[in-house]
Amino acid sequence: MRKRISLLAACGVAALGLAAAPAHAADPAFTLAGPAEIGLRPHPGQNGGAPQKTSVEFRLVNDTASAFDRQSTFTIDLAGLKGIADVALAKQQGSDCTLTEAAVTCKRPGLWKGETTVVGLDLRAAQGSRAGATADLTLTGRAEGATFKAATTKVRVGGPDLVLERAALKEEQKPGDKQNLSIVFANQGTESVRGVVLEMRTTHGIDLLEQYDNCTYSEDTGAGRPQGTGWSTVQCLLEGEYEPGSVYGVDGSLTLKAAPHAFSDIVTYAVYADGHQPKAGAASKKPAGGKKLAVRERAAAGASAQSVDLDPWNNLQEFDFRTRNSADLVAWPVAVAGAAGETVRADFGFRNNGPAWVANLRSRESVARTDIVLPAGTKATRVPADCEGVNADGTAREQALGAPRYFCSTGHVVGEREKYSYPFELKIEQVVANAAGSVSVGQGTPQGTKGQPWDPSHANDKASVVIGTKDGGASPSPTATTTATASPTATASSSVAPTSTTSTSGTTPNGGLAATGSSAGPLALGGAVLVAAGGGLVLAFRRKTGTHV
Question: I need a labelling partner for 432 at 20 to 30 A (CA). Which of 77, 163, 498, 514 fits?
Fold first, then answer.
């Protein structure tokens, strides 16, 4: 009897434990993604060879709060591609994906947060496939305790292919120079295009003078973006039918003008089938001046689409301009007063007296370094996140606070007439008679800074820093700030290795204070995929350093 009671009690405890156990949370749901449609070059390829490959990438989006730590399996059924396309795994795919005639299978031990690649495939039109044939590639996933939303990409043999000719533009220029942007393109695909969108994008120093009623105009000037880093975008709808094998030219002036502040600038121009162009800016404008940008047919291409070697990026071109100009960086003097033991605020920095903006658009390296030497008797208690504490001789040190010297970096853009301010909080540990520091701006070196080659006046690169007493102490003697006449100079990229994340706009000071300092830490783009439904081209700038003369 005693045993029976004990058994019943144990069962009761177990039941209570089960009742107290929390219910399982809902299974996480993940999204699989890929392009809506891709096009394949028809078989055979140029001169009877193998057709050019078209690559497709499938991705997984984990926007849940955490990583998923169970094994997942992903599958693409290839049965529908038989006789339409040949499939191969993309290079550097890794050993977690296998390919058979029937399917692609990939396994993952876990799923990281964010967006990751599941598999990349290279597709070619199969021998005997006909233009216009289509099939679906569908990626599915499964895992215990999770659900997946499948992704489907339509594969099509043939289609339109817009190819843009590279314009003959002059790279070297001076402020005020004008050049005509000639737009010539062809349809080297197998199907007509109904409506073409011409897109032109320019950086801060290049203006497009004309405006047309069938174009929209927008500025990419997001909040918090450094001055001048946004692009001006123009999209023009060119109505009509553009047939395979034909060449067309835009019939109307498109004049590019170097602005007074031009220096290092980029222009991109592209043609898209209507409906597949990048999304225009939300604040786009459309003029109504009575002028319309037109197109005329120039000549027949004279060759079938199958005989042309098409590259998947050749409907987009870009061009770099180098403008003979200068930018005068001027450090300002700093004078603050306080008693021993008091903490004061000091704003160090410089301004760009122009006339040019300066931007390392390709390398995204810092434009300039500000070298701050603190007066004896003071100690930094708060410094901006983009300033690095160093020893007196400029060598690295571990602790940012309490350093005798600081190197502060700009972002990769310094606008014309822009001011960079680095706010510090300094504790006056003792008042030292005649103690003085300095603030310098220029190109970063291991020892500190040196004058930028495009800066016409180095006399104002350095200014004094003085800490005085409240009852009247020494005041700084400002350095000269006279701006020399701009003359042709050569540019050089800053040698500062890290790129600052400082965000400035106009004369807004750089960021807030951090409790601790942080370590500063003719391109012929080939063509267009035959059918690129589901998104526009993504322009990836190559790293490029140039010299300005």
Answer: 514
